[in-house]
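Minutes, project check-in
Item: structure for the 265-residue chain
Input as provided by the requester:
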Amino acid sequence: MVRLVICDMDGTLIGRDEQLPEGISDWIAKLKEHNVMFTVATGRSEAFMEPLIKRMGISLPYAASNGAAIVRAGSTLRRRQFPVSHIRGILKKAQEMGLSLLFTSNGIDRVIEITPWLIKEAAKHGITYRPEPFSEREWNEYRIEKVLIMDDIRDGRISIIEELCKDSGDAGFHYVRYRNKAIELMERTANKADAVRRIVEILNVAMPEVLVVGDDDNDLQMFQLGAISAAVGNASSNVLPFVEYHCVGTQFDGVKEAVLKYCGV
């Protein structure tokens, strides 16, 4: 019997329109009536997620920044960071190539220069990014949960950044590559699987009683935890060998399909 559903956000609950699905808070409330808990594990920062968490009516712990932070009711239960100094060379190369950088530190997003992609992202979310270049002291002392390196043109330049990541050795971080569009760098022990494991412990649920639903490469480790795993219909082909069920429905329709299959709700 499934007692807990943990769901990815981007590409799973949220589509390209960046909007929460209509009726999702009522749907989550209905799950609760049937003794099924619901929370999320996302690559997004707490600053981005907190308004959405409130609108969905989620009071359980959730994972932000690809598991680097575990948050409950606005309070951080755990945070894993690494020094930006460890990846300064990688970031400098990314800037020289015109790629976009989006940092997350203490749950807040920061940019050090504005790019066309960041302008488009800001417009999607109704926010304004202001460039905050690092001082030399910050380059030496600043710590982050993660940094997203985005190639909006998607012409293969991400492969150059990946090679630099591979050559960095044991620099206290690991990375997730999203095909030709982006790479995210996180503290080496921070990932969704580790965060899900901790949330499951907090909620006193056995892993076989958990359903995890996602769509992309940052969900791979989460899919291999021993929980029931499902990928929505629009999921990356990279994750399909690692899930028990591939939904026909895309995004929220796929989530509902998986929950109906395994929870009966």
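Outcome recorded: Residues 251-263 form the longest helix (13 residues).
No further action items on this chain.
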